[in-house]
Amino acid sequence: MTRAGGDAAGDLSFGPFCLNVGQRLLAKEGVPVELGARALDLLIALVSAPNTLLSKSDLMSRIWPDVVVEEGNLRFHMTGLRKALGDGQDGARYITTIPGRGYCFVAPITGSAHVLVTDDGAAKFRHANLPNRLERMVGRESDILDLSERLSRFPVVSIVGSGGVGKTTVAIALANHLATTFDGAAVLADFGTLSDPSLVSPALASMLGIPVGSDDVRPSLLAYLRDKRILLVFDTCEHVVDTVADLAASIIDAAPQVRIVVTSREALRIEGESIYKLDTLACAPDDPEITAETILSYPASQLFVERTAASGAALAITDEDAHIIAAICRKLDGMALALELAARRVEAYGLSQTAALLDQHLALAWVGSRNAPPRQKTLQATLDWSYGLLPELDRTVLRRLAIFVGDFTLDAAWEVIAKPPLDRPALFGAVDSLVAKSLLSANSFGAMMRYRLLDTTRAYALHGQTEDDRAELAASHASYYRRWLEQFGPDWPTLSSGPERLPYFLGINNVRAALEWAFGDNGNTDAGISLAAAAVPVFQAMSLFPECQRWSERALSAMDDHHRGSREEMHLQAGRGIARMYLHGGRDTLPALTRSLEIAEGRGDAVDQLKVLGPLNMFHLRTGDFKSALQCAFRCSSVAEATGEASAISLGHFFLGNSLHFSGELSRARVELEAALSSDPRPSRVPGSYVGFQGRGLAGGILARNLWLQGLPDQAEFRARQTIKEAAEADHSLTLCIALLGGIAVFLWRGDLESAQEHIDWLISRAGLHSLSPYVSVARGFEGEIAIRRGDPSAGVSNIRRCIERLHGSTYEVFTTMLELSLIKGLALLGEVGEGLERVEKAIQSIEANGDFCYSPELLRIKGNLLRSISPSEEARRCITGAIHASRKMGARGWELRASCDLAALETEYGKKEEAAAILQPIVDRFDEGHNTEDLKAAEDIKMRAEC
């Protein structure tokens, strides 16, 4: 339990109790009070209107807004509330009943700081990115309290109001106030930077660190949020309101614990939404008799005075000054942004002159056409006036800064907009001036300040650009962000999701805008080709595969002979190929990757070659061409060594170890995989591949399988669990899924069905979250094997059939042989020996053609058992004996033990007990561990029966 300062918007105290409305927490002397949800709703309603009679019908409509309930329900929960409060005990009185009418809260209430109860161990959500709330927010305390109460009852609360009223400020303050309720899981998604509604879901997914692995990210997003207790703030939604409404409706339908705060000029108009009209700040009336003290008690006046003082103006407010302030506030209609802009001018012009300027420049706008858009009736007028007060240098800088979409740095501003006679001191001085005039916002991201024009200000400034200016600025903007991608692109693999990635994510908005310009009607395709090529590695690292494919293909189609064979084409072909591999399977993937590799080889750059060889290795593995994958892996390893870079070398070890494992070269595979694991665990700025992961993080899952096959089941289990643990801690879903695949195989081979099922559930959840549908199919197939082994072969066989068909359809063949083995075992139990023999023959032919020889001994063993189920023939003996020899040649003691058990059982059927014991004893003696595993227990049982 910790102590925290109170918040007038959320902490209310009466007697020994402290009620935090936002956290929905009642504490008595610092100790939480157990209180049902309806009783807590009653308490919040009563304390929100102290000393006010609330009728029974009013209370029931508040507590059960969408349900018709009997009055007895109200009495029942009121009794529970009074009991929890100790109402009426030892003279304490909190709630009074007015017979036949309702209830009234009568205890004194204070809002000062009190003891709060928090969970010290609550984990902070790593993607949380809320800016800090203002130290003082004028006139919005009751709004925060009301919004907090609404958010406890409605999944979506939309803060609706005109531009400049302060919707975003209130939303951020509300989210900060409620962040502890969600264990810090509060995320701000600013949609104001998006011009394309189709990017709403991908933008939110990227902010949450979700790889965008398909054309439609919506299923992944909903799967991710399904079990989350999280607060989402959707900011500036009016220009994409239809898309946001559809997304919000889907989220609240799929994720009941998620709460959404929306800021927009219009409501979403969806079920479950509570619309909160955020009014302008209250202004003092036009009353000559009103005192200065009364005028300054109004929120609009308070805001104006505070912002005036903050800008450096010294005010000793007289009665006359107070009335001028009241007049300014009324003229600006209590609009927060307009008040702040006006307040900034007082230092230079004084109160009277500022009011006069308002009359001259804004009066007509305020009384203009009533059917004009709110932005033109308020902020447009304010900006006209503010722009008119700027010196020419500030005007020039403001117009040029409008080329940026969203946030930018001073360095970016200097590189993009500076040209003679604008030098660095002049630019920085103008930026400082614009910040001081509230025309430019400044936010700190760590040690770096970032700047942003408000959307309305940017639109206003863009209108002032000439066509020539805009073209020159757009070209400079595109050139800068190409250099930015080349400089900072290698940082992406080293960054965790959330706040650390936020500045980079914001930069991507400018990359998108530059690409749109470059390939537009008045753009520059050469600049677009260079920019798209530089963006490919970043799009890949961020798993933005749809955008990677879109811009790669757009740039490739715009290329002429001058660009053929260039480094740009190499990047773009690789981007197109791997994006299509993840999004569409094998279609049109290989030609693009092959062309990219051809260019890389021609250029002779080892890192460039490795960047393509990695995806090529993955392509061949995914499509079941293990022989080609092994050849590619050898090249990966050789090229990686040539780079001399630790991360690339680790990736080379992984690719080679992975391919060697499936090819049945277990000893060599172990050496490579252990080398990958022993590499430097720190991420590198020089990624060895477009695949977007480090080799060290993937090697453990395959090594665990390898260890089991080599007859080290306990070491295999340890490695599997350790790898899964490390992958989970790293929060890299692709790595975790691969680790889980390796671990589940080990658990199944050990006979630990409980652990297998637990991790299958985890794999299905995580893979489904990121649209990794082949992994889900493999996991479902593993579930089929568990069903077979638990006595339901019919359900298991049916399940595995479907999964294998889906995997064939998506050309994902890495695990189809393993699933075929499970399917054939189930068919044998069902008596479908004929189909089992057909499938095992086909599987043997497949591995001979494709090269996943690690399963050869097991296929021979299964074939022998199928034949043995018909009759104990010599052919059955030859198959099982062949499995033993193949296992020994491969060094696969795991398979050898199983085949030896079957051969011993066959000898026992012939009455050759001594021969059976002689077969088993040597192999059992070679196992120094794993004596509690299913196979070794079976071996001991057969050996004991043979010795009897």
TrEMBL record:
<feature type="domain" description="OmpR/PhoB-type">
    <location>
        <begin position="9"/>
        <end position="107"/>
    </location>
</feature>
<dbReference type="GO" id="GO:0003677">
    <property type="term" value="F:DNA binding"/>
</dbReference>
<dbReference type="Pfam" id="PF25872">
    <property type="entry name" value="HTH_77"/>
</dbReference>
<dbReference type="InterPro" id="IPR011990">
    <property type="entry name" value="TPR-like_helical_dom_sf"/>
</dbReference>
<dbReference type="Pfam" id="PF00931">
    <property type="entry name" value="NB-ARC"/>
</dbReference>
<dbReference type="InterPro" id="IPR058852">
    <property type="entry name" value="HTH_77"/>
</dbReference>
<dbReference type="Pfam" id="PF00486">
    <property type="entry name" value="Trans_reg_C"/>
</dbReference>
<dbReference type="InterPro" id="IPR001867">
    <property type="entry name" value="OmpR/PhoB-type_DNA-bd"/>
</dbReference>
<dbReference type="InterPro" id="IPR016032">
    <property type="entry name" value="Sig_transdc_resp-reg_C-effctor"/>
</dbReference>
<dbReference type="GO" id="GO:0000160">
    <property type="term" value="P:phosphorelay signal transduction system"/>
</dbReference>
<keyword id="KW-0238">DNA-binding</keyword>
<dbReference type="InterPro" id="IPR003593">
    <property type="entry name" value="AAA+_ATPase"/>
</dbReference>
<dbReference type="InterPro" id="IPR002182">
    <property type="entry name" value="NB-ARC"/>
</dbReference>
<dbReference type="InterPro" id="IPR036388">
    <property type="entry name" value="WH-like_DNA-bd_sf"/>
</dbReference>
<dbReference type="InterPro" id="IPR027417">
    <property type="entry name" value="P-loop_NTPase"/>
</dbReference>
<feature type="DNA-binding region" description="OmpR/PhoB-type">
    <location>
        <begin position="9"/>
        <end position="107"/>
    </location>
</feature>
<dbReference type="GO" id="GO:0006355">
    <property type="term" value="P:regulation of DNA-templated transcription"/>
</dbReference>
<dbReference type="GO" id="GO:0043531">
    <property type="term" value="F:ADP binding"/>
</dbReference>
<protein>
    <submittedName>
        <fullName>Transcriptional regulator</fullName>
    </submittedName>
</protein>
